[in-house]
Design brief:
By secondary structure, the protein is an alpha+beta fold. It folds into three domains: 204 residues, no CATH class; 98 residues, no CATH class; 92 residues, Nuclear Transport Factor 2, Chain: A, CATH 3.10.450. The protein is built from five helices and 22 strands. Strands 3, 5, 6, 8, 9 and 10 form a six-stranded mixed β-sheet that branches. It starts with a helix and ends with a strand.
Length: 414
């Protein structure tokens, strides 16, 4: 009886301890996640997941037709990808201006942003914000986040504007008893972010100089340049006005194509953190297309890197070759194969052609084995053994490909 009672007390103590630990973990989780009741200017819209993969760290100027935070909605009238598309450095006084402050992509939850003050003084926008990071012992969501704050300013009179954001840094610390404390991070210098933008009079569109400036400011904000770009090497070498034909798919009458040369301290594109890099100054050329409204439509570096989306430019698919297939000197049909035979046929391309021919002639359900591919003069001969099952693998199919005439002669036994 005494043993049973002692056992019950022991189990109860374990359960109580587990409950306490769970409560502490929950409090840590709640404290580490961004609060929806941020103090500060009214109308600021916060998001922690919508900007992932879109916004780099910094201040982005967004020009839209209407207030993207109308009616105090928790989601913008314009979705986040559209806001990303409407980033600019030059806008019209008829457009609604907002500032989107992003901390960039973070590896987990627990990172937050809170705009504490906003003042428009003449042509200067003064902001203050708190950036909070999770400290040791803080439980966070295991998902990428991008803490962003969308600050609506309104329709502004023409002029040159500057933005100054003062940042206070904090990190969360888990104390005994599950108490979460926000501790300031001391820095030797004031943390300040800056940005500039221009408002043009109604009806006045960005000209050649404004397009060059927009393109240059876009380049400075890309991860390729932020990583190791040398600002004194930036040089606008050409600005061309591209007039779109009536009825074309282009949304505007014309665009500005700006060509900029610059140098980085290492080879490569994008954020190259953690990679082994050569210590070689590397020249680059960026071609940036700016719409007549001042919106960057496209930006490509060295013809291979998409500066806007921060990814490699997809290689164009080869033009499909259109073959005429002749089977057993009788039946003919056309066959399209996704290979480029203008510079000859490689072994890999021959395998693709052989597979397409076999399936077109005998079907995909037939058991087959590729025996050989041979190259003789300008002809490629592909030989298969086939059958309806493993015991029947005694039949053959031979395809002779002539890339010069785009014909394929097929011989097979029945």
């Amino acid at each position: 009886m005494v043993f049973s009672r002692a056992k019950s007390i022991y189990i109860a103590s374990i359960l109580i301890a587990a409950i306490i630990l769970s409560a502490q973990a929950y409090l840590s989780f709640v404290a580490a996640e961004p609060s929806s009741d941020n103090e500060g200017p009214k109308g600021v819209l916060y998001s922690y997941y919508d900007g992932v993969g879109l916004f780099l760290e910094g201040i982005h100027v967004v020009a839209t037709d209407a207030n993207p935070v109308q009616g105090g909605q928790r989601s913008p009238v314009y979705d986040w990808r559209e806001l990303y598309r409407w980033r600019t450095s030059v806008a019209s006084e008829t457009q609604f201006i907002s500032l989107l402050v992003s901390r960039g992509d973070e590896p987990t939850g627990g990172f937050s942003i809170n705009v504490t003050s906003m003042e428009l003084s003449g042509k200067q926008v003064l902001l203050s914000a708190e950036f909070v990071d999770p400290g040791e012992g803080i439980i966070v969501t295991q998902a990428f986040t991008n803490p962003t704050a969308l600050v609506p300013l309104g329709r502004l009179p023409p002029g040159e504007y500057s933005v100054r954001l003062h940042v206070d840094l904090f990190h969360l610390v888990a104390r005994e008893g599950g108490v979460i404390e926000k501790v300031p991070i001391l820095t030797f210098m004031e943390v300040v972010w800056r940005a500039n933008f221009t408002i043009l009079p109604a009806g006045e569109l960005p000209g050649e100089d404004e397009a060059a400036w927009i393109a240059t400011e876009l380049l400075k904000r890309t991860s390729t340049f932020l990583f190791d770009g040398l600002e004194h090497t930036i040089k606008v070498v050409d600005v061309q006005k591209l007039v779109h034909e009536p009825g074309s798919s282009a949304p505007n009458e014309y665009s500005w194509v700006v060509t900029i040369d610059f140098v980085t301290a290492h080879p490569g594109h994008g954020d190259r953190s953690g990679k082994v890099l050569l210590q070689v100054l590397t020249s680059h050329r960026a071609v940036i297309t700016v719409s007549e409204l001042g919106v960057v439509e496209r930006a490509v570096c060295d013809g291979v890197w998409d500066l806007v989306n921060d990814v490699e430019v997809p290689s164009p698919s080869p033009a499909a070759a259109q073959f005429v297939v002749v089977v057993n000197e009788g039946r003919k049909f056309d066959l399209s194969v996704d290979v480029d035979v203008s510079d000859g046929i490689s072994r890999e391309e021959a395998e693709v052609i052989g597979e397409r021919v076999f399936v077109a002639v005998l079907g995909s359900e037939v058991l087959r084995r590729l025996d050989s591919i041979s190259f003789e003069k300008d002809l490629v001969t592909i030989h298969y053994t086939w059958g309806y099952n493993e015991q029947d693998l005694g039949h053959f199919l031979e395809a002779v490909v002539d890339p010069s005439s785009l014909t394929i002669k097929v011989t097979h036994c029945r």
